[in-house]
Model the fold of this input.
Amino acid sequence: MIKQTMRMEIIAHEAGHNSAKSFVHSGSEDGDYEYWQVGLQSNINENIYPTIDNTMGIINDSENRMYMKIIK
Done:
């Protein structure tokens, strides 16, 4: 069970990078998308799921919206 959870968290983390062009780690440790923060940017177990800010960033990313499709 632990391995499955970790795989899902890795997938969530990597999906966050691909969800909006602005979601890139700066490497400066003081930016707004750093590994130590809670949300899609995190690499800490159980802190990796999207925050409201992550979700809004994905929706508001203009380049991302060009390729979005809503499938019913």
